[in-house]
Amino acid sequence: MAAFDYDRARATAERLIAKFGQKGSVRRIRSAGPDYDPVQMSEDFLCSFVDLDQSQAHIADTLIQRGDRMVYLSTEGLSITPTLADKMLIGGVEHAIVDIQPLSPGGTVVFWQLQVRR
Q1: Is residue 1 part of a domain?
Q2: Is 44 in contact with 102 (CB distance < 8 Å)?
Q3: What distance in Å separates the CA atoms of residue 25 and residue 90, rounded to the nearest whole number?
Q4: What local confidence, expressed as pLDDT, does residue 64 receive?
Q5: What are residue 28's DSSP bridge partners?
Q6: Which whole-number Å values give the CA distances from 23 to 47, 54, 63, 83, in the listed order?
Q7: E strand or H helix that includes residue 50
Q8: What is the CATH number of the domain that holds 51?
Q9: 89 is in which domain, residue-wise?
C-alpha cells in the first residue's frame, strides 16, 4: 500500500485558503538594544488565512470567549512558526493568539489552526 502524500494535502490546503481566504500578517514583537534600555520592535510576516466565527457550541463552558475567532493559517509563504507571543492582523486590527494547533499528520504541517482574540 502506498503511503499517504501529506505534501499534496498541504498543497490543497494552501490552494483553498488562497482562494477562499484573505491576506494579512503575523506580527512578531521583539526587543532590541541594550538590556538596560530595550526597544520594542515589530516585524510583520505576510500570510494567507481564513477567518471564521467560533461555533456557539464551543463557546459555552470552555476557554473560548464570545468574539473569539478561529483562523486557518496557510503555511504557504510563511517564513516563521507562529507562537502565542505573536499577534494576528486581521483587516489591520491586531488580535492576540490564544491557542495554536498545527494540523500535522505524519509530521508535515498542513495548516495552523489559531484561536485569536481582539
Answers
A1: no
A2: no
A3: 7
A4: 79
A5: 43
A6: 6, 20, 27, 19
A7: strand 39-53
A8: 2.40.10
A9: 6-117
Q: Which three cell numbers stand for residue 106?
A: 505524519
Which candidate, 87, 81, 86, 88, places its Cα nearest to that of 50? Answer: 88
Which conformational region is residue 9 in: left (phi greater than 0), alpha (psi within -120 to 50 degrees), or beta?
alpha
What is the number of structural domains in the chain? 1
Give the H/E segment covering residue 45.
strand 39-53
CB 13 within 8 A of CB 5: no
Using only C-alpha atoms, what is the Rg of the chain? 16
pLDDT higher than threshold 90 for residue 3: no
Q: Does a structural domain hold residue 74?
A: yes
pLDDT band at 57 (very low <50, low <70, confident <90, very high): low
Kindly state whether residue 49 falls inside one of the protein's structural domains. Answer: yes
Residue with cell 506580527: 27
